[in-house]
Amino acid sequence: MTMHRSKYRRLGVLALTAGLLAGSAASAVATTWEVDYAAYDLQQMSPSCAGEISRSNAYADGCFVRNGDKLWIRDTASDSRRVAVQWKLSDGSRAGMCVNTLGYPQEASCDKNFPEALNISIRVGRCDGSTSSCTLASQYTNWTTWISGPVS
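Now predict its structure.
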């Protein structure tokens, strides 16, 4: 009798483990990576970013403007490097970068369309476009820390 119970107990544990593993695999979200090249914008970055989610370092200023889902990036160093705002949504569905290739002292923006019920996190960094494509976060240096806030 003891042998049959332990056999069934082992089968139950195996079934439970298999179910948990299958459930976690099914609920995993694949992140879509998006790279946009910022374009010159007739609006100005400074007034647009006032009171918004923003980050700065010695090389770049960046922000996310909730009204219009716009990412802004300004190159603040005359060093021939690209600058970008990296962003990610709180549900893990989308992430990417808004890359400014216009150079110092240009500011530019990327128009996005994000779901309103989520949070967004951003940071800014720089990349040497003469040695890499600058399309992956790992190619950038001097990243700021992340800052988060609501999309809407």
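The radius of gyration is 22 Å.
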